[in-house]
């Protein structure tokens, strides 16, 4: 068993902050923080992702549309799918689950 202390808690660093809290051979978990008014400049990933919004409000955009998101929302993104958070109204904190483990770019 492993307890992930601080996972999903907003960390204010400019411009954005991603901290990995766990990595195994098949998955990884981290916290992604974007300050209010910030810009999400991420590119598509090779891994599938699940985002759990733990705080804040924004709009999530993919080629299939846009969706307002807030605390408690869960989003699934297929590998290689374009996606980003826009109109970040409140400091946004997200638990991010990657499968397989995030490889970076």
Give me a quick take on this structure:
With about 100 residues, the protein is mainly β. The chain is built from no helices and six strands. The model has no long low-confidence stretch (mean pLDDT about 95).
Span of the ends, CA to CA: 30 Å
Order of helices and strands: EEEEEE
Which homologous superfamily in CATH is the superfamily? Jelly Rolls
The number of helical segments is 0
Percent strand: over 45%
CATH class: Mainly Beta
Low-confidence runs: none
Query: Which percent range fits the helix content?
Result: under 10%
In total, the number of strands is 6
Task: Give the CATH topology.
Answer: Jelly Rolls
**CATH architecture descriptor name:** Sandwich
As a whole number of angstroms, the C-alpha radius of gyration is 13 Å
The domain tally reads 1
Structural class: mainly beta
Taking the sheet with the most strands, its summary is: 6 strands, antiparallel
Shape: globular
Overall average pLDDT: 94
Domain Cupin type-2: 32-86
Protein name: Cupin type-2 domain-containing protein
Pfam families: Cupin_2
């Amino acid at each position: 068993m492993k307890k992930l202390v601080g996972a999903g808690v907003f960390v204010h660093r400019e411009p954005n902050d991603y901290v990995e809290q766990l990595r195994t051979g098949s998955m990884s978990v981290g916290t992604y923080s974007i300050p209010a008014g910030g810009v999400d400049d991420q590119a598509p990933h090779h891994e599938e992702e699940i985002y759990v919004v733990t705080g804040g409000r924004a709009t999530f955009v993919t080629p299939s549309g846009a969706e307002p998101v807030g605390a408690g929302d869960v989003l699934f993104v297929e590998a290689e799918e374009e996606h980003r958070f826009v109109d970040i109204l409140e400091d946004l904190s997200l638990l991010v689950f990657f499968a397989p483990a995030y490889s970076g770019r």
